[in-house]
Amino acid sequence: MPIQLRDLHGAARAVACLMLAAAPYNLITGVLMKLGDPLPQLITLGVTSAVAFVIGMVCLNLPERMPALFWPVVPFLGIAVVTGLNVATEDATLGPQLFYLWPLLYAASFLGRTLTGLVIAAISAGHALIAFQFTDGAHALNDWIAMTVAMSMTAIVVAGLRERNDRLRDVLENQATSDPLTGAANRRAFDAEIGRAVTRARPEDPLALVMIDVDHFKTINDTWGHAIGDQALCAVADALRDAADDRGHMVARLGGDEFAVLLRAAPYGALRYAEQVRTRVSGATGLPCGPPRLSIGIAVAPDHAAGPDDLQRVADAALYRAKEGGRGRSMMATPARLAA
Questions:
Q1: Helix H segments across 31-63?
Q2: What domain of life is recorded for the organism (predicted)?
Q3: Is the Cβ–Cβ distance between 279 and 235 less than 8 Å?
Q4: Are 331 and 266 in contact (CB under 8 A)?
Q5: Element (H, E) at 20
């Protein structure tokens, strides 16, 4: 299963901040403040600072250029760098160990639970290497246990907050793009999707737009009340969802008694879908007003139109012809070459 990064731009900014902060910090504390240290050590630290700066600039400005594997691997690289620098400087004090917080917070914020657990294990191992090498046994053991527990608890809190925010975001996105009565997509979601869908339409993979009006819906509301009218709309939305052979189609309520469906189908496939919808609606039970009748207009890209606006226009024209012809029927748009 491929590793999913939760937020590329957020992860890129996090990596950029680390690298652009670590580069001057490492240069100042590891090179300029220790000019009397062995030359190979100073060169290594200087090169590390330069590499960190370059990576930070790329992540900040061109994150899409980084390979996909970089993002799940970067916290482990960070742990290796922190551990290596602490070993090189023989520093087991608290300050340098706090840099382990970055890979931990990065993993808990942008990666899944398994990788976060592996990051905690890597931090624990890295700190153990430093603590047991440069401090006495009892002190090292206490530091190692405290660091591992603290990192684990921090990861649990951050991951929990992230998952809660993910759930809240999903709820808000659903509320912003769906019709509260029928559960279908709303006009905003439909307008966003039709543009993307039409650009992908090809003669071998056409896109059908099915426009639906509930016939004499005002009469239903006036005679039976709005509650029964709402039930009729829900019955239509359910039929539109259930009639497709697959679940890759989009059902939208554009307003009032007007619905639209986007599905991957050729003209005859779209017409067959429309008649299946009509059959399902006619079998609806529990409506005092009886099953509502539908007028349906169908247009297919690229057969009838090349762009989203033209596709909606010709589908609306087909719907208008269905109404003019007596309602309760489906009409196919006229192919563009014939209309011209």
A1: 39-61
A2: Bacteria
A3: no
A4: no
A5: helix 8-30
Whose tokens are 């299946």? That residue is: 276
pTM of the model: 0.61
d(CA 331, CA 298): 6
Contact 263, 242 (CB under 8 A): no
Alpha helices per DSSP H over 178-262: 187-200, 217-224, 226-242
Instruction: Give the SS3 label for residue 325.
Output: coil
Encode pLDDT of 219-231 as tens digits: 999 999 999 999 9
Identity of residue 125: A
Instruction: Report the distance separating Cα 47 and Cα 18, nearest Å.
Output: 16
Residues 132-146: what's their mean pLDDT? 86
End-to-end CA gap in the chain: 50
Q: Report the candidate in 16, 93, 81 with the shortest Cα–Cα distance to residue 44.
A: 81
211-216-222 Cα angle (round to 5): 135
pLDDT surpasses 80 at 85: no
* Domains parsed from the chain with CATH numbers: 8-176 (no CATH), 187-339 (3.30.70.270)
Q: How far apart are CA 104 and CA 194, in angstroms?
A: 41
The CA distance from 282 to 305, in Å, is: 31
Task: For residue 319, give the amino acid letter.
Answer: L
Return the axis-axis angle of helices 101-110 and 70-89, rounded to nearest 10°: 170
